[in-house]
């Protein structure tokens, strides 16, 4: 029988990976990416410092390569990310007040407009909360307190009314202060009519750390009237067995599949060889391009 691929099983949710076009010269990498996934996220190519390294001078090439790859292989694209405290270019980090606000709106408007029609969802805001649930003291918060939040969503919605607009963060899969703060924030934004449509759970996890109540957390968020997605999944081995890692992958995918309103799972690179985490083999493919047992096990629960 012909081996089926993840995307062939992905009827209820999409299954994606962060990809980097710098790896496309690696034929095994691009073959697996095209065969297995029906969604991709640019790993770095849409981040501010990469896409607009100097004011008004956009470097769209690498991001466009990914969008073309997605079109060629019938994949959707998650745009990542408009506003973050990392990858803020130097020319932006020296600004403040009205000047900073103006370039923020301009950046969002220009980038979202450029890719309008090819992006399923944008991570409008990334990692704006601290572990204790307070707002992270970023250049954005320090200048505008929380007002930039609605402004960023409004600007993105004006530029592409069809894209799903997300807030994205890590360590929010747990029942903790950060997850609670995120919930309250999304609730507040919804009640104010801010155009927010989704909550991304990065889920950079570790064997033994996937919470047993993850599905109920996802469900709780969907009750606010937003969709949810697992946006950056990787599971560090944490000294445990590959079988335990398989179980952890299956658990997360099952949690998403079981919640109506959980629309997809994206791995943060699918292959250990190119993971941003250089140790602890956190991906479903090993560095020799072999699918780990996790892949077949995930197919079985999709
Ligand atoms: C990471 C990339 O994978 C690395 O290549 C880069 O050097 C740093 O950023 N949370 C996010 C992602 O939202 O954008 C980060 O990606 C990983 C953590």
UniProtKB/TrEMBL annotation:
Entry keyword annotation includes Hydrolase: yes
InterPro entries: GH, GH10, GH10_AS, GH10_dom
Active site feature: 232
Domain GH10: 1-301
Annotated protein name in UniProt: endo-1,4-beta-xylanase
EC number of the protein: 3.2.1.8
GO molecular function: endo-1,4-beta-xylanase activity
Top class in the EC scheme: hydrolase
Catalytic activity: Endohydrolysis of (1->4)-beta-D-xylosidic linkages in xylans
Keyword Metal-binding: no
Species annotation: Hypothenemus hampei
Native organism taxonomy: Eukaryota, Metazoa, Ecdysozoa, Arthropoda, Hexapoda
A GO biological-process term: xylan catabolic process
PROSITE patterns documented for this protein: GH10_1 (PS00591), GH10_2 (PS51760)
Family: Belongs to the glycosyl hydrolase 10 (cellulase F) family.
Assigned keywords, A-Z: Carbohydrate metabolism, Glycosidase, Hydrolase, Polysaccharide degradation, Signal, Xylan degradation
Superkingdom of the source species: Eukaryota
